[in-house]
Amino acid sequence: ETKTLKADKTVRTTCTYCGVGCQLDVSVINGEIKGIQAPETAEVNEGHTCLKGRFAFQFYNHPDRLKEPMIKKNGKFEVVTWDEAYDFIAKKLKEIKNNYGADAIGGFSSSRATNEENYLMQKMIRVAIGTNNIDGCARVCHAPTAFGMQQSFGTGAATNSIEDLKQTDAIFLFGANPVKGHPVTGAKIKQAFMKGVTSIVVDPIKTSLAELADYHLQIRPGTNVAILNMLAYFIIKEDLVNHHFINSYTEKYEEFKEHVDNLDINELEKLTGVSKELAQKAAIAYAKAERAMEFHGLGVTEHFQGSKTVMLLSNLAMMTGNIGRKGVGLNPLRGQNNVQGAADMGVQPHQGAGYLDINDPKIQQYYAEKYGVDKMPEHEGLKIPQMLNAAINGKLKALYIMGEDTIMTDPNTNHSIKAFENLELIVVQELFMTATSEMADVVLPASSYFEKNGTFTNGERRIQRVNKVIEPIGNTKPDGQIIIDLMSRLGYQQPTGLTYDAKDVIKEIADVIPFMKGLTWERLGENGLQWPILEDGTDTPMLHINGNFKKGIGTFHSFDFEESPEIVSHGKKYPFILTTGRELEHYNSGTMTRRTDNQTILSEDVLEVHPKDAISKGINDNETVRVISDRGSVVIPIKYSKNVKRGVLRTTFHQPEVFINIITGSVGDKETLTPEYKVVAVDFERL
Ligand code: SF4
User: Fold this and answer.
1) Interface pTM (ipTM) of the complex?
2) Residue of minimum CA distance from atom 2 in ligand 1
3) What CATH number does the domain located at 145-332 have?
4) CATH 3.40.50.740: which residues of the chain?
C-alpha cells in the first residue's frame, strides 16, 4: 500500500550541483526535506532533473555534517564558540599582515557558494585584508574559457541559451560528456542527435553521445589545437567561410587564413590520429549547417593549450558566421553550479567584480569609492597554483578557504600538502571534514544551499534565486554571514550598512557591476535573468547580435599545436596517457554525493583500459593495478573498455580511496595555469 504524504511546505530553489542550474521544488515535512520535484514551468529544466539534483540531497542532514566551529590545539580539533573562532582568525590575520604584508595572505573562494557570498569573499580579501590574492575553482576548470572568449569576443561567457538547441541544425560537441556532467542539457543534446541534427563529437573517449554522433573524431588526448586547425583548413579549402560576417565584424582573419593555408595536413593527421577524410567530412558538415551550436567542456580547458583551444573554437564560429543568431554560438558547459557567477563577482586575481581590470588606476579608484576605502591593492594577485608555490617558497603565510577541497581536487597532491604544511594559518569554511579541512587550523561549519538565500548563475549567464528551505543545521552559518562577521572583526565597516541579506548584497552588486545595473531580487522572479541586465530590468538571452562584440570587433587568433610538456618530459618513461573525468552519480570530489544513496549505486573509481593494453601486460579484467606517474602512484581496479583507444586510460576522482590527483601533474594552461588533468603520462602494472 502506498501512502501519499502531504508536504508542510514546498520551496522553489536552484540545484547546487552542476552549471545547468535546474529549478527544484523541495518538499518539507516536519522540518525535514523529504523530496524534490522538477517544476514543469522552470525554463531551464522544464520538468526534468537528474539523479544528483533530484535524489542526492540526503547529505544536508548527514551525521558527518560539521555543526560547531573548531580550532586545532595540539594537533586535535576542539569545539569553540563563534566569537572565539572569529577572534582567533582576526588576530592571526592581523599579525601575519603586520609581519609580512597583506600579500602573504590568500583566499580561495567557491563556485559552490552563492553570488552574494563570492562577492563578499573577494571584497573581504581585497578590502579588509588588502590583497588581490583571491582565486576560485574556475582555476581548475573553466578559467581558459573566460580568458579565451574575452580575447576573441570581449566577453567570457556563453553566447546563447540552452533553449536554442530547439532551433539548431548542427551540434559540435568538443571535449565534454554532458550526459554525465550536465545531465539535463546532455539529455536535450541527445534528443537533438536522435532527431537527426548534424552531430559532431570531438573526444578521445567514445562516449554515448560520440557513439550516436554522425562524426566522432577520436583524437589523441592533448591534440585539440591540431584538430581545430585541421577543421579550419578544410572549411577554408572548401570555401565554406562566411565572408560577409568576417568582413563586417572581425579582424585578423587574413593572418589566420595564411597560417592555416601553410599547415601540414598530413602531420596533423598523424598527431591527432584522426584521418583527413573524416576531418574533412566533419568540417564540411559543420560549415554547411545553416545554424550550428558549439558546446565545450573541461576536455577543452584542462589542457596545456586550453585557452588557445577556446580561441580556435571562437574562430570556427566566427569564420562560419555562427554568432549572434538563434541556434548558434559558443556555449561552454560550465561545470559547477556557480562557476560563472563566481567569476562575475570578481573571484580572480586580475579582475574585480564585473571583470574590471584591477591593474588600471581608474578602476582601483572606482572600487575604492564603491567600497568606501582610501585605496585598493594596486597589483594583480596570485592564481591558485602560484599561491601554492608561494607557500612552498615561504612567501604566502595564510590561506582562507571557503568551500574548497584543494587537497583532493588540485593536481599533484603531495605538492599541495607540502604547501599547506608550510602555512602559519589555514582557515576552512566547510560542510564536512575533507582532506583540506583536516589540515586547517580553524574549521568553520557552513550552512548548505538548503539553509540560505542567494543566487547562482548558470552556464547560460542566468542568475537564479536560491531560496532558504530550512533553518541552518546546528550551529552552522551561511558562508556569506561568516565573511560579513569576519570583515567587521578585521575592522572594515560596510559603508552602506550592508548586512548578509541576499536583497541587500544584490543591491550593492548591481551598483558595482556595470552589466548588472537592473538586477534586483524581485526582478529575478521564478526563472531568473540572463546578464547583461539593463537598468530597466531587460535581460539578454543572446550576445553579439549583428557582430556587437564587447571589444568592438571579433578577433581571430592563430596557433600551432604544441606537445604538452608532460608528454615531452615524461612520455618515454610513462608511455600511457591518463585522462580524468566524471560519472553521472557523483559530483567532483564527492563530498556531498558520497553521503547520499548515489554512493550505493557507484562506490568506486575504476580505470578504463583497452583490453589489448591490459592483456599485453597479463592483467585480467577487474584486477587491481598500480598506476604510476612522475609524482607517485595509486592503486585502482581496472575495467576493460573499448571506449578508450590503445595507449589511453580513463578514470574519475570521486573517491578518496584512490586519490587520483596524487599522480596528476603540475603542467597547466599557459595563459591561465588551469591544470592539465586530461593528459597525464603514466604507466601501470599488476599489483
Ligand atoms: Fe542539478 Fe545539473 Fe542534475 Fe540539473 S542536471 S539536477 S543542475 S546536477
Assistant:
1) 1.00
2) 18
3) 3.40.228.10
4) 70-141+338-530
